[in-house]
């Protein structure tokens, strides 16, 4: 041995370094030692893997506990078990008997059966849902624009093309199956004797495809929005063809589109989907003959009769499962037979099919689509209608059936409830106490299939009852609604029981399937032995033996769907010339039926308990939810109804822009929350109750509602406990904020809620009182009308001061008070205050419009505007002071109310509007002030530290990371609020500007011409108010009232009249008028004598003019400042 080290010990230079130089015996010894070490290494590694995986599974099981999901929703579960047997093998690989011809036949028919099953699956998952749900997004919108309908249809166009391809593929499968069977059952066929072989599974596959086509046709036919939308879309395309340039397209593209639409129209929208299939050409000359093939015709008729006998024996019985679907397929297959042969010899079968309406008056196909078999048969085979009842008799029988069923619904629901309850008890019980393993497995087989049968029976009853009420337009009484809802609950209870027992099913299903296959093998073994020992062996015996061998081979492996298809075909071949005795054949058929149900347990469970159809009967929900709220003892069933509604989520996912509002809040959450609040109030104020409750009366028990697990509905999680807790949180906070002195009462109610029902409400964290004696911002905004009337606004210093008070002191409110109130209630109160002010302004502007619309005022304003326009150049573009003064006097001459003229009242209205805008300004400034008082502790608001990154870098705990993230978020919010702020002025200007732009309000444009007399009125008012400050009786005294200037600026900006008022140059006119009066007084004083009285009179007149001029200047400065606030609102 040159080296003993490995590759990692040292690099090698050449292959010879590792060359072996020992003997063969040494080599074998080394090889055995290496193999032993390798085996030991692999074993040890696998052991470590198993131990680690076992530990991981144990931790998962411990974390999940008894439930695999915290939500009451099977779809949201973290774990799921799929017990469907599967196998990766083709039909040719499975059909491996010594009979090569038989192998090819069963492989071909099996592949076609599989294709039919695949078509059925694709239709259910990809085709039916979007077609049935089309137009649901426009539900309730009767005035929807046609354009929306065409857009929705345009989105559906790719799907319609796919459906056309799907339909043609279904036609091909039907034609291929018919050709294959016709070729087998042909007098000219000599390679395989089929004289006594009945291949019913192949005919059933044809029926399956025909049932799919019937369902598709009914969905399209019964969806009025789909058909109407298609007509509108075709009309739109035709209009485009008449003028392609307008729509930016060319004629070739439109021609291609129109050809595609025509193909879709003839394939889908002519209500001929099924009829086109059965009327297609099946005869190929010199290749295959169908219509002139007597052997195939006889076999076809025999299959129809035997299949109907099997279906009729269980249709409407307690053992019924999928027989209604088979009945639809059978009717479709009968229509194909009659179309091919026009044979009236099967009139008895037609009569039997027709009379089945007494058992099943209608059949639910999909969603809200129901199928009436008598209507279908009358339309498909009208030639045989003479031997059956008239349509009037059928309708009467259908009404009688509904009356009988409606009266029995409550008792049927109770009976179903008892059966399901008993089955659930057995499912949840310990089933291991049996005499033998075989008895245990047989018991479980019966138990697992019993739940499926129960679910099918309940589902059929619900669908029939709802379908008949809808078809016959009969109302549902509350008792019947509750019975139907109880059936839905039972369906989901069965589903949930299977889900809970899925570990048991997964553990036992393989053994149960194996036991059933062994029983089938034991039943087939004597048949095989008798065929092998037959004295006369001919082709029929050999074919029967080949069929038995095929069946036994299919039973020797996983019971996959492909194997079961070949098993049915093998048994059909084996039973030629009744090789299998009738009793044994019936027993084999029953065993095969149980085997199929067991192997497709999950699929059958889905088909039996799927409740997406409840979406179309959601009108029953309000009655159900109201009953659920008034009956706490039954509220534990509510999750089952939610699970039934959740099945519609997959359908709704097919609808774009769908907004369904199926809310629990209005029926359960809100009434429950209100009742809980009342109960808490009564409990906290029990000492104040005049009439005390006796111990026997008790209180309402809300605990069952809060014990419900969270439920899922349309991707939203409903938690009754969380919803009520949120309601109480909001209520406690709002009422504590309004009346801080009552915080102890609400704290006691919060503690009671936690003690009685486990409702953990969040503390409000509000201070028990305000340290500053002031009007609270909430009080102001709720009484905004009284506030603007009782307080005067100062624009420069930003404060409000009370007009008058009973005491010697007046209340004042400034920015610091507003900021303190905002810190108490939070920044959200700012937007609420703006909303209150907006409502107040709406009322004030209504009075404003009425004043300007008055005939007297409007005519005078229009007259002044006309005068100024005509004489503007002569007046030097300055509105004459004398005309404004005359307007002021004329208005006063119209009369007064309470000592105030109409112009005084209009000025007060504008002042109130300005005070409201001043309050908005103080709110915004107070918010910035409150933010600034908090952000002053932040060293640098531009380059702030990221605390979360530092905590993550230091590897601190998850709680520390959450705290750091919240701190970063709060600091970022503070910085944004400090740097910016909402422009409430712009918002309020934009809101009213849009409304006042209406042509009917054009008279508001006259407002600017009334401002000159208004300012004269305001100056006189302010002069009188200031003079009263020096008097003993100070009623009506004031030193500031800037709300008038603020209101003028705001209204001018809203009406867009700022430039129109500037064009009057009104304040220049006032200055010129004062200068003129001063000069006149001075000239008069100089001309008159130097008497003391004349001098004193002149001085008083000049003082009066100066006061007048000063007040006008103050108004001008304040008005100019107010305009700045609205400069950026355009």
UniProtKB/TrEMBL annotation:
GO terms for cellular component: endosome; WASH complex
Pfam families noted in UniProt: WASH-4_N, WASH-7_C, WASH-7_mid
Record-annotated WASH complex subunit 7 central domain positions: 613-941
Listed InterPro entries: WASH-4_N, WASH-7_C, WASH-7_central, WASH7
Domain WASH complex subunit 4 N-terminal intervals: 48-612
GO BP of this protein: endosomal transport; endosome organization
The organism of origin for this protein: Thecamonas trahens ATCC 50062
Name of protein: WASH complex subunit 7
Residue stretches making up the WASH complex subunit 7 C-terminal domain: 962-1127
């Amino acid at each position: 041995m040159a080296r003993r080290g490995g590759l990692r010990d040292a690099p090698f230079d050449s292959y010879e370094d590792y060359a072996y130089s020992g003997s063969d015996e040494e080599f074998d010894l080394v090889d055995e030692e290496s193999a032993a070490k390798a085996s030991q290494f692999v074993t040890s590694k696998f052991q470590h893997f198993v131990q680690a995986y076992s530990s991981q599974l144990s931790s998962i099981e411990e974390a999940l506990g008894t439930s695999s999901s915290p939500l009451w929703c099977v779809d949201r579960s973290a774990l799921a078990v799929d017990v469907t047997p599967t196998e990766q093998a083709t039909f040719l690989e499975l059909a491996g008997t010594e009979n090569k011809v038989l192998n090819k036949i069963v492989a071909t028919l099996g592949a076609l059966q599989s294709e039919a099953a695949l078509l059925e699956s694709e239709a259910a998952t990809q085709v039916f849902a979007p077609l049935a749900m089309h137009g649901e997004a426009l539900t309730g919108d009767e005035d929807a624009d046609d354009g929306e309908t065409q857009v929705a249809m345009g989105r559906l166009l790719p799907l319609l093309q796919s459906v056309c391809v799907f339909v043609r593929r279904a036609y091909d499968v039907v034609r291929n199956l018919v050709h294959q069977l016709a070729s087998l059952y042909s007098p000219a066929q000599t390679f395989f004797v089929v004289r006594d072989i009945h291949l019913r599974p192949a005919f059933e596959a044809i029926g399956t495809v025909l049932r799919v086509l019937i369902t598709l046709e009914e969905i399209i036919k019964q969806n009025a929005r789909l058909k109407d939308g298609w007509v509108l879309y075709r009309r739109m395309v035709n209009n485009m063809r008449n003028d392609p340039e307008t729509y930016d397209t060319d004629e070739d593209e439109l021609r291609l589109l129109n050809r595609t639409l025509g193909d879709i129209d003839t394939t889908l929208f002519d209500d001929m989907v099924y009829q086109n299939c059965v009327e297609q050409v099946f005869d190929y000359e010199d290749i295959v003959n169908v219509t002139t093939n007597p052997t195939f015709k006889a076999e076809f008729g025999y299959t129809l009769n035997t299949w109907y006998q099997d279906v009729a024996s269980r249709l409407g019985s307690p053992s019924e499962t999928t027989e209604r679907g088979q009945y639809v397929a059978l009717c479709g297959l009968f229509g194909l037979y009659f179309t091919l042969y026009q044979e009236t010899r099967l009139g008895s079968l037609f009569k039997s099919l027709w009379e089945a309406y007494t058992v099943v008056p209608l059949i639910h196909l999909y969603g809200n689509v129901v199928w009436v078999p008598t209507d279908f048969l009358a339309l498909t085979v009208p030639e045989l209608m003479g031997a059956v009842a008239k349509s009037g008799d059928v309708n009467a029988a259908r009404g009688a059936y509904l009356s009988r069923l409606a009266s029995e619904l409550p008792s049927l629901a109770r009976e179903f409830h008892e059966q399901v309850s008993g089955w659930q008890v057995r499912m949840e019980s310990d089933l291991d106490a049996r005499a033998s393993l075989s008895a245990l497995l047989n018991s479980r087989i019966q138990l697992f299939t019993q739940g499926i049968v129960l679910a099918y029976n309940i589902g059929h009853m619900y669908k029939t009852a709802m379908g008949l009420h809808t078809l016959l337009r009969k109302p549902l009484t509350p008792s019947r609604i509750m019975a139907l809802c109880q059936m839905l609950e039972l369906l989901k209870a069965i589903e949930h029981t299977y889900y809970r027992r899925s570990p048991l099913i997964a553990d036992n299903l393989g053994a149960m399937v194996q036991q059933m296959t062994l029983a089938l093998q034991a039943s087939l073994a004597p048949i095989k032995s008798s065929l092998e020992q037959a004295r006369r062996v001919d082709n029929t015996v050999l074919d029967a033996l080949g069929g038995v061998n095929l069946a036994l081979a299919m039973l020797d492996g996983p019971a996959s769907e492909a194997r079961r298809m070949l098993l049915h075909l093998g048994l059909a071949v084996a039973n030629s010339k009744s090789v299998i005795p009738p009793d044994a054949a019936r027993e084999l058929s029953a065993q095969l039926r149980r085997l199929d149900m067991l192997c497709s347990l999950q699929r059958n469970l889905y088909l039996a308990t799927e409740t997406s159809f409840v979406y179309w009967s959601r009108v029953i929900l309000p009655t159900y939810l109201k009953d659920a709220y008034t009956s706490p003892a039954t509220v534990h069933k509510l999750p089952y109804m939610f699970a039934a509604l959740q099945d519609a989520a997959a359908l709704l996912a097919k609808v774009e822009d769908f907004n369904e509002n199926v809310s629990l809040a209005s029926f359960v959450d809100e009434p429950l929350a209100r009742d809980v609040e009342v109960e808490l109030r009564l409990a906290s104020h029990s000492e104040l109750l005049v009439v005390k409750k006796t111990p026997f009366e008790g209180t309402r028990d809300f605990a069952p509602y809060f014990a419900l697990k969270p439920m899922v509905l349309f991707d939203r999680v409903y938690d009754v406990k969380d919803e009520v807790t949120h309601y109480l949180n909001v209520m406690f906070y709002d009422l504590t904020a309004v009346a801080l002195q009552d915080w102890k009462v609400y704290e006691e109610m919060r503690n009671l809620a936690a003690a009685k029902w486990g409702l953990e409400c969040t503390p409000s964290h509000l201070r028990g009182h305000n340290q500053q004696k002031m009007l609270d911002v909430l009080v102001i905004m709720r009484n905004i009308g009284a506030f603007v009337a009782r307080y005067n606004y100062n624009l420069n210093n930003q404060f409000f001061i009370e007009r008058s008070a009973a005491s010697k002191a007046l209340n004042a409110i400034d920015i610091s008070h507003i900021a303190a109130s905002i810190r108490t209630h939070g920044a959200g109160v700012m937007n609420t205050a703006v909303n209150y002010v907006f409502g107040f302004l709406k009322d004030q502007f209504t009075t404003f419009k009425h004043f300007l619309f008055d005939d007297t005022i409007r005519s005078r304003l229009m007259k002044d505007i006309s005068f100024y326009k005509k004489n503007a150049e002569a007046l030097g573009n300055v509105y004459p002071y004398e005309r404004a003064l005359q307007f002021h006097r004329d208005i006063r001459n119209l009369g007064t109310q309470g000592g105030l003229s109409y112009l005084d009242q209009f000025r007060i209205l504008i002042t109130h509007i300005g005070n409201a805008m001043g309050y908005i300004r103080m709110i915004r400034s107070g918010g910035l002030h409150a933010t600034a008082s908090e952000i002053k502790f932040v060293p640098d608001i531009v380059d702030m530290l990221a605390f979360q990154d530092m905590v993550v870098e230091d590897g601190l705990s998850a709680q520390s990371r959450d705290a750091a993230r919240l701190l970063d978020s709060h600091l970022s919010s503070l910085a944004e609020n400090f740097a910016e702020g909402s422009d409430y002025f712009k918002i309020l200007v934009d809101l009213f500007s849009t409304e006042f732009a209406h042509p009917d309000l054009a008279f508001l444009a006259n407002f600017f011409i009334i401002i000159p007399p208004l300012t004269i009125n305001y100056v006189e008012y302010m002069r009188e108010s200031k003079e009263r400050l020096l008097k003993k009786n100070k009623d009506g005294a004031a030193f500031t009232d800037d709300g008038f200037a603020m209101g003028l600026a705001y209204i001018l900006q809203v009406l867009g009249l700022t430039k129109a008022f500037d064009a009057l140059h009104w304040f220049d006119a006032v200055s010129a008028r004062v200068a003129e009066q001063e000069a006149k007084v001075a000239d008069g004083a100089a001309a008159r004598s130097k008497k003391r009285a004349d001098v004193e009179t002149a001085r008083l007149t000049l003082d009066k003019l100066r006061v007048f001029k000063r007040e006008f200047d103050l108004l001008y400065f304040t008005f100019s400042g107010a305009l700045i606030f609205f400069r950026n609102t355009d």
